[in-house]
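hey so i finaly got around to running the thing on SUN5 protein from Sclerurus mexicanus. pasting the sequence first so u can double check i didnt mess up the copy paste, my clipboard has been acting weird all day
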Amino acid sequence: VSPGRCWSFKGHQGQVVIRLPARVHLTAITVQHITKDVSPSGTVISAPKDITVFVSLLGNSGGVDADGEEESVLGTFTYHVEKEPVQTFPLKNVLLPRAFSYVKLLVKSNWGNPWYTCIYRVQVHGRMENQTD
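ok and heres what it spat out for the C-alpha cells, dont ask me to read them lol
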C-alpha cells in the first residue's frame, strides 16, 4: 500500500462489485486506506467514510439473483480516518447459512474530497461454502 496506488473513482460516491472465487459464508469485511503520515498532501480526505455492504449470487447491481431474490444488505459502517488504517467490520449473520458469490461495496461518502475517493484494499472474510471446520 503506497500513496496514489489505489482504486479510485470520481466524486464522493461509488461502488465496486467483487466476484468471489467461490460461494462464501461471509463474516467480515476489511477496508484499508493510507495514513496522514504517508500522504503527500498530509490529508486523507479521499478515504471512504460511509460504506454499505451488499451480497448477491449474481453480480448485477440492484437486480435479482438466481433464486429470485434481490441483493441483501449485510452491514453499514463508517471508516474512521483517525483510527488504524486497516479496519475490519463484522457483517450481519442473519442470512447465514447462505453463501454468496458477489460482494458489493457501496461508498456513500468520503472525508471531504470533492473530486475523487480512493480505496487501497478490501478484504472479504468468511468460509467457503464447501469448506469444513
